């Protein structure tokens, strides 16, 4: 058996920034437009008027201050409220593969590894561009990797589930070097016209290089243990699958984009995640004082604060539990990896931390790492 290690990470940041102020202005203009168009139905009690959003509401509900997106103009168009993505020829790189190439290039450079030495690519993401062929195989071809590749979707837990799969294969000896990449183009799957969630998501891509620890060329993190769990719930869902959207089904159904029952999610996911992490730590003989850092899924500031308190037995400080939510918003599976990539270099040899992500499914994955 071999020890798997994280030897490099990379982050692609989408080119456009949308501040809360800009988003609120666009959303409120959309709401006013919709209310005017449906005034008769609202007057008759057949429809409810859409309430305005506000910057204070967004920050209080989420802790988010801005987000990066691939297309700002389309999202902020009150008559549209979703991005404009150009159609791509079949022989052109897909958007997911294109952003993945950027993030992977940064991760490989940090690891000191050539793409030709990669023998496994896992594209692990919530928001897939197509059902087939696998985006991972396209990415494998685009970067010039060998071996094999496959897609994985466990919603916001996709990155940690992908890391477990890659680490297990490295430990077993079936691969030497793997890349887990998380291209999350959330803006195309998001419902920007829903006040309860219009502010949540942003676009990004992260990549993680895993190798046998013996092959690491520089500073790295040994993977001590991984743990994954799922428990079915459709309180977070997106019904816009290729079997659902038939040619004769063109109505504008709200459930064909991101949806969540926020109160139920908050109530049910928090104990699931905190209990999962506590059990994982106990299995490894780790107490709260042994954990130097928590790199959590960046879904909601209040959720992360609750989990941090439960796991650490006290209020973690910002250094112990870094947040990137205020700048990137919720980036689905990529959030915990952004936090790890940006806030891990300062740890000393022997320091231990936990990468944890959680989301629809319900799903939760945790990776305990030690600075080598």
Strand-helix topology:
Layout (H helix, E strand, L loop, with lengths): L3 E10 L2 E4 H18 L1 H5 L11 H8 L3 E4 L2 H4 L19 H17 L8 E5 L10 H9 L4 E5 L5 H15 L4 E8 L19 E9 L8 E13 L2 E2 L21 E2 L1 H22 L7 E6 L4 H12 L12 H4 L6 H8 L9 E8 L1 E11 L1
Parallel strand pairs: 4-5, 4-6, 11-12
Antiparallel strand pairs: 1-7, 1-8, 2-3, 6-7, 8-13, 9-10, 12-13
Helix pairs in contact: 5-6, 8-9
- The percent range for strand residues is 15-25%
Q: Return residue spans where pLDDT drops below 50 for at least 5 consecutive residues.
A: none
Based on Cα principal axes, name the global outline. Answer: globular
Tell me the structural class. alpha+beta
User: Mean pLDDT, rounded to whole units?
Assistant: 93
Our count of helices gives: 11
Helix content: 25-40%
What is the number of beta strands?
Answer: 13
Helix and strand run = EEHHHEHHEHEHEEEEEHEHHHEE
Distance between the termini: 18 Å
CATH class category label of the domain at 221-371: Alpha Beta
Q: What is the CATH architecture annotation of the domain at 221-371?
A: 3-Layer(aba) Sandwich
Sheet with most strands: strand arrangement: 5-4-6-7-1-8-13-12-11
Structure description:
The chain is of the alpha+beta class and 372 residues long. The protein has a domain at 221-371: Thiolase/Chalcone synthase (Peroxisomal Thiolase, Chain A, domain 1), CATH 3.40.47.10. 33% of the residues lie in helices and 23% in strands. The chain is built from eleven helices and 13 strands. It has helices spanning 20-37, 39-43, 55-62, 72-75, 95-111, 135-143, 158-172, 262-283, 301-312, 325-328, 335-342, and strands at 4-13, 16-19, 66-69, 120-124, 148-152, 177-184, 204-212, 221-233, 236-237, 259-260, 291-296, 352-359, 361-371. Helix 6 (135-143) links the parallel strand 4 and strand 5 (148-152). Helix 8 runs parallel beside helix 9 (301-312). The protein is globular, with a radius of gyration of 21 Å. The mean pLDDT is 93.
